Amino acid sequence: MTFDWMAVLAGAGVGLIVGLTGVGGGSLMTPLLISVFGLDKAVAIGTDLWFAGLTKVSGSVAHHMEGHVDYHITKRLLLGSIPASILTMTYMHVEGVHKSGQSTLALALGVALLLTAVTVAFRPVWHRVGIWLERWITRDNRGTLTVLCGAILGVLVSLSSIGAGALGATMILLLYPRLDMKRLVGSDIAHAVPLTIVAGIGHASLGNVEWLLLVELLIGSLPGIWVGAKLTKLLPETITRFALCICLVIAANKVLKLV
């Protein structure tokens, strides 16, 4: 059994971007696993789900300790996302991941990448949009809409491994525009961990996880995230956000060509 230092470096690179921007882990890791490491799309998605879930555990615990998790929001999201993820994985078990299924996964992955790029690019705008939407999103329907958004995330994350981070945070921001930013981030991460692990278990049951590669990626990502977090003080957010968007669009273009 040989140790793949390229995987460690890839994990460190993705970890660095996550530390710098707060997003981009799943968005960049899955295309990387497909294009650089030559993994089957389903295996890349399954491996990335475990990568995302395990790397966010420490962040979730830290936000919980600081009181930054709004569990009412998290529970509502999970009420939608966990059943949707289980149903999606059940469908994949019944149908299998054949050639047409691979095309569906590639399409879902490409769309998720483009949605994430738009989400990141217009991050400063979403708060104002959320305030504007308050005339329609009221206390009476906000809970139902949160469960619905959770269900959308559950399907998207199960099919593509992407969406639990940037897209989830944007949905929370649109539904709860007056929520403190620290609690928004903490709630998003707290929701992402169980969702990605449940979807990851589903993919593992299909044999869609490369475990040794996952360990190598994690070894690189943990110090990468730490370094990236330190560098955020040196690089303007606009530059890092623009660079991430470019990477996401390029990755989406490559993935959509596989459809």
Q: Total number of helical segments?
A: 11
- What is the alpha-carbon Rg in Å? 17 Å
For the record, give the distance between the C-alpha atoms at the N and C termini, rounded to a whole number. 34 Å
Query: How many structural domains?
Result: 1
Note the main sheet.
Answer: none
Q: How many beta-strand runs?
A: 0
Mean pLDDT: 84
Write the element-wise H/E pattern from the N-terminal end onward. HHHHHHHHHHH
Main features:
single chain; 259 residues; mainly alpha; globular
What does it look like?
It is a single chain. By secondary structure, the protein is mainly alpha-helical. It has one domain (24-256). It is built from 11 helices and no strands. The chain is globular. The model has no long low-confidence stretch (mean pLDDT 84).
Could you provide a short overview of the structure?
The protein has helices spanning 5-21, 25-35, 41-65, 71-95, 99-121, 123-133, 139-160, 166-175, 181-205, 211-231, 237-256.
What is the strand and helix layout of this fold?
Layout: H1 5-21, H2 25-35, H3 41-65, H4 71-95, H5 99-121, H6 123-133, H7 139-160, H8 166-175, H9 181-205, H10 211-231, H11 237-256
